[in-house]
Fold this protein.
Amino acid sequence: MDPAKIREHLAKADENIRKGTARIEEQEKRILSLAADRHSTDEAVATLKSMKELQETIKKHRQIILTELEKAS
């Protein structure tokens, strides 16, 4: 693959990681708010777990992109 295209994919992965981090932080705040109001947090915690798993998958994908960039350079 063209190194320029790989860099585009890397930039997109970085953007997705930044957005994911922000969403995770927002979800953690929601959980705290729910708990403070004595609401169930089960679903919110399950959602947070899924979000964190997805974030790890994106980070792994980013590493694959970096490996491809090294090969292409």
Summary: The mean pLDDT is 97.
